[in-house]
Amino acid sequence: PDGTADCYFEFSLLLIELVREAEGFKIWQKFVCQLVLTIAFTIYCRKTVGTEVILPFTGGKTWDMGWLYIPFVLFVVLGTDNGTNLTDGLDGLLSQVTIVIAFFLMLVSGRENGGLAVISGAVAGALMGFLFYNSNPASVFMGDTGSLALGGFVAGTALLLKMGWFILLFG
Questions:
Q1: Side-chain half-sphere exposure of 168, counting CA atoms within 13 A
Q2: Phi, psi at residue 106, to the nearest 5°?
């Protein structure tokens, strides 16, 4: 798989957030949209990368999760996405943490998937530029749109690299 699906996934989350901010989605409406997009992403992942995941600290051993993969992806994506949204409440914290995660994902995906490596590097670079303008006194703010997109990036990239369990370690 290339990085295209991850881009579409993040773009979809971004569109939902833009509509929500413009028209005022209620919390349950936002969650339903996230759930629908995550189910679509789960179907894509099952067809392209399968249901195997790499287990941390096992030397690269994998586990075929079968039907457990569906709730696993839902938990990883929705948990990471909304967790990043909560982390964004602290000035610059989400950006700093995501820069480190994006560099890690870039290094890991460089060997397996060059498209995801480029996207991860671009996210890290963009966040470094964002931090420059977000320093005290901040002139640019991320908001829900940016934080949810970053959560989608981290979860989507990790899942496409079969590293969903690693979110517990670095997410």
A1: 9
A2: -65, -45
For 87, 96, 151, 161, 162, the CA distances from 101, given in Å and listed in that order, are 14, 9, 11, 14, 15
For residue 63 the two structure tokens come to 């586990």
Residue indicated by tokens 């940016």: 146
CB 119 within 8 A of CB 127: no
| pLDDT 10s digits, 6-37 | 666 666 767 666 665 656 677 787 888 889 88
- Which residues does residue 35 pair with via DSSP β-bridges, in sequence order? none
Judging by beta carbons within 10 Å of its beta carbon (0-12, 13-18, 19+), is residue 123 exposed, middle or buried? Answer: buried
Query: Tokens 């005022």 label which residue?
Result: 24
CA distances from 169 to 17, 41, 104, 164, 166 (A): 27, 22, 12, 10, 5
